[in-house]
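Writing this down once: the sequence line spells out the residues, with the fold written below as integer tokens. This is how one looks:
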Amino acid sequence: MNVRRKIFYTGLRKPDGTVRQAARRAGIRLLHTPTVQLRYRRPRWRGRGELADVLRDCLVLVGGPAAAAGFTRWVRKVRSVEPGSLEVWVVGPRAASEVGSLGCRTRTLDDPTASSIARLVEEHGAGRVLVAAGSDGRDDLRRALERRGVSVSEIEVYDFGLRDSRRARRAFRGVSGEDVVFSSPRGVDGFLVTIRQDSLAGFESRFVALTDETARAIKAADGVVGLDAAGRATGIVLQALIDGIP
């Protein structure tokens, strides 16, 4: 009997239809097993002065759809901020659609890597940026921007709660020897909670990290990063795993 290879994706959003179809054609089970749940909250402002004043004087960088949704919810509640006065750069079309509903001046970035974003910011001539992200942050982006002399402020617009799912626990019983894709450090924490383990030591699975912070979280949990895919889009990474490309 042939045993179908599995790929576990632990991020929040279900992989898009094109990737799922490619997995089916290849005879691979692509399992969406989220280990976190999204929580929006009043943003935590890391910086000096009034945030509303800062927004008027800087370029805003927003990550993916979760950050876009959190940022949009917050801006709608701040009466002192005129959305039309904001210049916001976002990663991906879904985030662009979300932020665009505010009436902001938006620019969609195709390359989510920190080095590419920092280069574009420098070319744009922005000396100050506000990064809207989750509680996991974007340390790689902050460092890349600061190396180019850009002043960086950060605002947390959402965080992750751990998701202890019976369905995921049942699915993870077959995780040995398979690919497990993590998109955030909290996803690693949620995986450990779900499987009732304290560390990743001894696992034969290949752990795939989609960010630098996630790779560090895997190592901190005594796991081995089988593939460091930091800066690459989720769909591209999943397609490469389906195709058997390391």
